[in-house]
Design brief:
about 60 residues, mainly alpha, 2 helices, about 0% strand
Length: about 60
């Protein structure tokens, strides 16, 4: 078992995905990816606005 397979196995065991069917696992992983994308996208937009406001104060 190489490093990547071990990390995937650890992810499956940690979140209990090993007991789900393939389509349930796919659905869960899709929701996780969408949530992470949403957080990163909105976080970057917030940081851009925050940076603009900080520059105006200086």
């Amino acid at each position: 078992m190489n490093w990547v397979q071990r990390k995937i196995y650890l992810y499956n065991v940690t979140f209990g995905l090993y007991m789900l069917d393939w389509w349930e696992r796919y659905l869960f992983n899709t929701l996780v990816v969408v949530l992470l994308w949403f957080l990163c996208y909105n976080g970057s937009r917030y940081l851009m606005e925050f940076g603009k406001s900080v520059r105006r104060l200086w």
